[in-house]
Design a protein that fits this description.
heterodimer; A: about 260 residues; alpha/beta; Rossmann fold; about 15% strand; B: alpha+beta; Beta-Lactamase; Heat Shock Protein 90; five-stranded antiparallel β-sheet; five-stranded mixed β-sheet; elongated
Chain lengths: ~260, ~375
């Protein structure tokens, strides 16, 4: 199968070095729209949608392969191999940050550095570990999704509407940034929120920047400290930005933090 | 209204304040970063609290844990990317009344520098609507289950037809060979007549069984199988029309072929398709005028059409002409199984082509067209 079409891979810019952006649960590659243009002059930008999200090939979704993050990590490696790129700067948001660490564990030669934006290796509290949620809370989330109690009722069918506020979006579909097949979204939620990849942190060899927001209920600040303490070659920046998506709520601060880290390498 | 509640405000401002606080829906306003700066009393009542308890928190803090996560992963990004979202179902946090289902609309106002100034959320109580949607969902699940069973039944019926067709072939083969042997053994005139009846009857039966088998293949497998080869179309079409002239010696078939080059098709299947169209035109068309048989091959497509004069196909029958078991009620006994045009259209599909029909008081025309650019590959 064609990896480029499967993952809706978009390549922009002509820089010698490659920067690849991976979106997290709930969005697609559009979530990087305020961030990647800042790196276009210096980097070749690679954007993609995880299978099941955005404009990826939904027929390629496998409930077996994507039952754990390794399936997604292999996709990232496949994209890099198909584009014949090495020494990438990998930027991953939330669960995708961990996919990047897994991919770097399997194929370290593909990665130069890893930028982890609001990452979390495990969302569930454990002895000596603050993940942000109790197991019962995650079960409640999965149950709400299962019963279609969240989102657009019945199915997440985007409605065609004008977009007077953001002219650059032109004729794009309303809510299409979150368009996901409801069944796939449920499964991705399960894979995301039940993952525990804390064991991979200590063996992370690639230089990494951890960007953690100040008030993020999905990935609290404690997680940033936890990861930084265990990842040998890591730097931690606690941002002023609040919420779970600094790439959307504070793109300038996000860009500045990434730029300053990359220049210091 | 109770003006004593807002002693310092002008009457208009008081009216607005009252509207904001006691409106039938909830209002929440946050600053550009998402911190709550205002919550109306209605929202606070739903949460068994007072508005000041929520100041400085994030909007997602009002929601039950599922909605809280969903808001941060889906709705907040959407608000930043498209500036608004509409009619999203979530649940308020359980503060003693259970998790109240609500619908929320969100809107982001940006300043001159394109940075968000504030965000507004409207909350609608949706308990009854949730119940209604749950009922709809149950109804849909039941309907899907029923449809599933019906589809399985239909498949069993079609498999039954396929098996029946197949099993009828062998005994019929025996009858046909026996009749042939009998015909060669010097029978008298009366016996010869009887053998002829056996032979023509079993030939018709053989054709019907073949049609049933093609129908079953079309429905159960991946369509009718074709083996395309390079064919001299003119030669093939002349052969077909000659065969039909033998069967109907008193009818005229007027051919007009513009065929410059060979084409790729399955000759046996094309014969089947075309002789079906010609036989239909002869039996249903006017006996006064010939059947017009045209073919055209050019760079972009090839096309074969069969036209007859006479009574049009009734309007109400047009939609079902290519459906299986379609036949004209009045003459059902003459029309066999009503599979001919269905199979013809399946053969057209198998060649990546189309079979279409037009019919008016003047003439009825069936056209089979295949675009040349598309490679025909056996399925």
């Amino acid at each position: 199968m064609n990896v480029i079409e499967r993952n809706n891979v978009i390549v922009k810019g002509a820089g010698a070095n490659v920067m690849i952006f991976a979106h997290g649960f709930g969005c697609d590659q559009n979530m990087w729209r305020f961030v990647y243009p800042a790196f276009e002059p210096e980097y070749k930008i690679v954007l993609f949608d995880h299978v099941g999200a955005g404009s990826s090939d939904l027929s390629a979704y496998s409930y077996k392969k994507y039952d754990n993050l390794d399936g997604y990590a292999h996709d990232i490696i496949e994209i890099a191999n198909t584009l014949k790129v090495k020494d990438m700067v990998f930027v991953g948001h939330s669960v995708s940050a961990i996919m990047g660490l897994i991919a770097a564990d399997i194929a370290p030669e593909l990665f130069k550095s890893i930028i982890l934006v609001s990452p979390s290796p495990s969302y569930i509290n454990d002895e000596g570990y603050i993940g942000g949620f109790n197991r019962s809370e995650i079960d409640e989330l999965l149950e709400s999704l299962e019963n279609n109690h969240l989102g657009w009722s019945m199915a997440m069918a985007p409605v065609i509407m004008g977009n007077p506020d953001r002219k650059e979006l032109g004729g794009e579909l309303s809510n299409s940034f979150c368009k996901t097949d409801p069944e796939i979204a449920k499964h991705f939620a399960r894979t995301t929120f039940l993952t525990d990849k804390r064991d991979i942190l200590q063996q992370a060899k690639i230089p990494s920047l951890i960007l953690q927001c100040s008030n993020d209920i999905i990935a609290p600040v404690e997680i940033g400290h936890y990861m930084h303490e265990r990842m040998p070659d890591s730097k931690l920046v606690i941002m002023n930005a609040t919420g779970h998506c600094p790439n959307l709520s504070a793109p300038e601060e996000t860009i500045a933090a990434i730029t300053s880290y990359l220049h210091g390498l | 209204m109770d003006y004593k509640l807002f002693p310092d405000l002008s009457p208009l401002a008081k009216d607005f304040e009252d509207f904001f606080e006691t409106s039938l829906c909830g209002f929440v306003i946050t600053d550009g970063e998402g911190k709550i700066v205002s919550v109306n009393r209605r929202t606070a009542e739903w949460l068994n609290s007072t508005p000041d308890q929520f100041l400085g928190k994030r909007f997602s803090d009002l929601l039950a844990v599922g909605g809280r996560i969903y808001f941060e992963t889906h709705l907040w990004p959407l608000l930043r990317m498209q500036g608004y979202f509409d009619e999203v179902a979530v649940e308020l946090a359980n503060s003693g009344n259970g998790k109240m289902p609500i619908y929320i609309n969100g809107y982001e106002r940006k300043g001159d520098n394109n940075q968000p100034l504030f965000m507004r959320f409207t909350l609608f109580k949706a308990s009854d609507r949730r119940l209604y949607e749950e009922n709809l969902q149950i109804a849909r699940q039941l309907a899907e289950a029923k449809l599933n069973i019906e589809q399985k039944n239909a498949q069993i019926r079609e498999q039954f037809i396929a098996v029946l067709g197949h099993d009828l072939r062998n005994p019929l083969g025996g009858i046909m060979s026996a009749a042939q042997l009998l015909a060669r053994t010097g029978v008298n005139e009366r016996e010869e007549r009887l053998v002829n009846i056996i032979q023509s009857g079993s030939k018709r039966m053989h054709e019907m069984i073949n049609n049933i088998m093609d129908f079953a293949r079309g429905r159960l497998g991946g369509g009718i199988p074709v083996n395309p080869v390079v064919v001299d179309l003119e030669k093939l079409l002349n052969q077909i029309s000659d065969e039909l002239k033998v069967v109907w010696p008193d009818r005229q078939i007027e051919s007009n072929f513009e065929i410059s080059e060979p084409i790729e098709c399955d000759p046996a299947r094309i014969s089947q398709l075309i002789s079906n169209l010609l036989a239909n035109a002869i039996t249903h068309g006017s006996t006064e005028t010939p059947v017009f048989f045209k073919a055209l091959v050019n760079e972009t497509f090839w096309e074969i059409s069969v036209t007859n004069n006479g009574n049009p196909i009734p309007k109400e029958a047009m939609a079902g002409v290519f459906h299986p078991f379609h036949r004209e009620d009045a003459q059902s006994s003459q029309n066999g199984l009503g599979l001919g045009l269905y199979i013809a259209s399946e053969i057209a599909k198998a060649h990546n082509g189309t079979l279409t029909v037009t019919s008016d008081d003047h003439q009825t025309c069936f056209t089979f067209r295949v675009p040349v650019a598309i490679q025909i590959l056996p399925k």
